[in-house]
Design brief:
By secondary structure, the protein is an alpha+beta fold. Helices cover about 25% and strands about 35% of the residues. The chain has three helices and seven strands; from the N terminus they run βαββββββαα. Helix 2 packs antiparallel against helix 3.
């Protein structure tokens, strides 16, 4: 049977969302705290701002160090590409013009609380996943599908953790 999923060049995306019984300002403080993210992630181990930045702003950069059983350990530099307080925080991984991934948190007021969405896109720039695809090009669609499902589960877990932190504050 032929696999019919997305290819890396398709720039596949994943999106998850949740409603949080907390004001956008409280949720915003959590999603823009990149130092908090490793405690919510099974892959991300450490994050630090670069160039003297103390927090997010368009153009600010941060380095992330990650680990995955199948992909090994790696480090990437991300560039903040969208920053609208209490609304949108997004970053491009590795290269602004040809990122290996783009990640975004979006907040919207919802019934006295906040609807929080996390979205990510693979590619178009090369990433660790590209090396796996290079080794097994016939399995590209399956490799992409599995990685997207991993991201979907991780993002679901991250939003659940953020919801708990925001609602318990």
């Amino acid at each position: 049977m032929e696999w019919t999923g997305a290819r890396y060049a398709d720039r596949p995306t994943v999106e998850v969302r949740t409603r949080i019984a907390a004001p956008p300002e409280r949720v915003w403080a959590l999603v823009t705290d990149v130092g908090l993210m490793p405690s919510l992630s099974s892959e991300l181990r450490e994050v630090e701002w670069l160039d003297g930045a103390a927090g997010p702003a368009v153009g600010a950069r941060f380095v992330g160090r990650s680990s995955h059983e199948a992909l090994g350990d790696w480090e990437t530099t991300s560039h903040v590409i969208e920053y609208e307080p209490c609304r949108t925080f997004a970053w491009a991984v590795s290269d602004v013009d040809n990122p290996s991934a783009v990640w975004r948190f979006t907040l919207a007021p919802a019934g006295g609380g906040t609807e929080l969405t996390q979205w990510m896109q693979l590619g178009p720039g090369r990433s660790g996943l590209s090396f796996a695809i290079d080794r097994m090009p016939e399995k590209e669609q399956k490799i992409v599908f599995v990685r997207l499902r991993e991201f979907e589960q991780a993002m679901t877990n991250t939003l659940a953790a953020l919801k708990k932190l925001a609602e318990d504050a």
